[in-house]
Amino acid sequence: MSAARDIEQQAAHWLVAREQPGWSADRESMLQAWLNESVGHKAAFWRLEAGWNAADRLAAIRGGDRSPAPRSWLPAPIWAIAASLVLVCMAAVSLWQFGLRSADPSIIRVTTGVGGRRQVALTDGSAVTVNTASTLRASFAGGKRRVWLDRGEAFFEVAHDKRHPFVVFAGGRRVTVLGTKFSVRRDGDTVTVAVAEGRVRVEDSDPATPERAAIITAGDVAIARGRSMLLADRSEQRVQDALTWRHGLLTFDQVTLDQAAHEFNRYNRRQIRLGDPRAAQLRIGGSFQATNVDAFTRLLHDAFGLTVTSDSDGVTIKS
Amino acid sequence: MTDDAAIKRWFTQEVLPLERDLVRFIARHCRNEADVLDLRQEVYERALTGSPIDRLRSTRSYVFTIARNVLVDRARRAKIVSFEQIADIDLVDLDPDLLAEERQMTARDELRRAMAGLDQLPPRCREVVRLRKVEGLSIRETAERMQVSHHTIERQLTLGLRALASFMLGGEARISRPPARPMPVRKADA
């Protein structure tokens, strides 16, 4: 038995696991501990990681075309210039799309896919956990702490700094804090802010209407849509429940099955559909693994006697 | 750690591109395939533990000097290798093969190579790797799509990852079966 092969197999296990949706901060620290155990672990892991990532170009054949692009008829240098021009244009377009005047190296960008979750330490000492199907940008240029939530949901643990407010822009809303823990979520044009600790101020990001501001504290939830904003005084427990996604869990307390299905569908490509209004209005509670649709639907079948039918792109629940 | 990040960058950008030549060099002095893997691993470990000053020299001569030392040590331990063989090991620097310029892979080369590597995998393993790399599916989604167990997909993906990574580094996309005993890496909640 080769010792090197043994280590390589372990390294491959870690790499595969790290790419899966359930990867958590706990497991990340277990991986770091394993890497720090020996230089041999590092060598094997870095080697496989580099080789495996080198095959990332395979994503380019997505869509069924499995043959490589035909050789270009242009001489190589011209082809290279053309390619770099295209790259420059693409970069310019994407920067323009995000409303930035110039390439700003201080912008940090975090994106997650469906079912993904990432934890990122920001340079000001704050930490952000980004939930499923989300995009977030952060900039700390010029002594300002600014974050844009382009889509999805994020939980912020903000490092206290009185002189530099931490501002989150989301769907026409501006959330300002000095140091606290809170989450911001976007669902189309609806922005939901839930505070776990401390106080935050929620207002229109349009400076013409500064009076439309609300201060919310721990246990409060602000739901803003268009020009209106609803403040709900929930218990701190309810807010904590709403944040269990940080551990890969969805926690429901007497919500309709319709609402629960909507939550599950944010985390899974396999969508849950409700076949009739009676099933949609059923109320349920409990904690579930966000990416385990099967466990959830099995429970619906066992506990409520609902009919569960699977097809290629999801499941349908009927009473 | 910044230091660790710098070493990793050096290792992946300067050492790993030499793998193809390194393995060929080791294999010339060692017939057993499992031994080649062990020796390659030992070269990498020594390269990573070496002093930072040594790493400032040409990476190629640094890595091949280590490889020669590893082979010499092994020959000494074995006690049955003739001195001619050890002397032969010293000729490494004169080998024209090993002085070849590193080939720079373009994006297009890389895609071709990745597709060639994919094609060399056994059918089921190839499909699992394809669903991961091309379609971006998780193990769970792949298991649902292919109607096989989570465990099977995980195993195929692990084997495929190793084979494809080796191929991308200049080796062969050959499946290397893991030992039968359970792996120490498990789910955190197990």
Question: According to CATH, what is the topology of the largest domain in chain A?
Answer: Jelly Rolls
Question: Can you give the mean pLDDT of chain B?
Answer: 77
Secondary structural class of chain A: alpha+beta
Number of discrete helical segments of chain A: 8
Task: Estimate the strand proportion of chain A.
Answer: 25-35%
* Main sheet specs of chain A: 13 strands, mixed
> Between the first and last Cα atoms of chain B, what is the distance in angstroms?
29 Å
Rg from Cα of chain A: 23 Å
Indicate the structural class of chain B.
Answer: mainly alpha
The gyration radius over C-alpha positions of chain B equals 19 Å
- Specify which chain pair forms the largest interface: A-B, 53 and 59 residues
* Helix content class of chain B: 55-70%
Overall tally of domains of chain B:
2
Total helices of chain B: the number is 10
What portion of the residues of chain B fall into strands of 2 or more residues?
A: under 5%
- Weakly predicted, low-confidence segments of chain A: 64-103
* Overall 3D form of chain B: elongated
- Give me the count of strands of chain B: 0
Structural domain tally of chain A: 3
Number of strands of chain A: 18
* Oligomer designation: heterodimer
Primary descriptors:
heterodimer, A: 319 residues, alpha+beta, Jelly Rolls, Phage tail protein beta-alpha-beta fold, 3 domains, 13-stranded mixed sheet, 8 helices, B: 190 residues, mainly alpha, Arc Repressor Mutant, subunit A, 2 domains
Structure overview:
The complex is a heterodimer of chains A (319) and B (190). With 319 residues, chain A is of the alpha+beta class. Chain A has three domains: 53 residues, no CATH class; 133 residues, Jelly Rolls (Sandwich); 71 residues, Phage tail protein beta-alpha-beta fold, CATH 3.55.50. In chain A, strands 1, 2, 3, 4, 5, 6, 7, 8, 9, 10, 11, 12 and 13 form a 13-stranded mixed sheet that branches. Chain B is built from ten helices and no strands. In chain B, helix 9 packs across helix 10. The two termini of chain B are 29 Å apart. Classes of the chains: A alpha+beta (319), B mainly alpha (190). At the A-B interface, helix 1, helix 2 and helix 3 of A face helix 1, helix 3, helix 7, helix 8 and helix 9 of B.
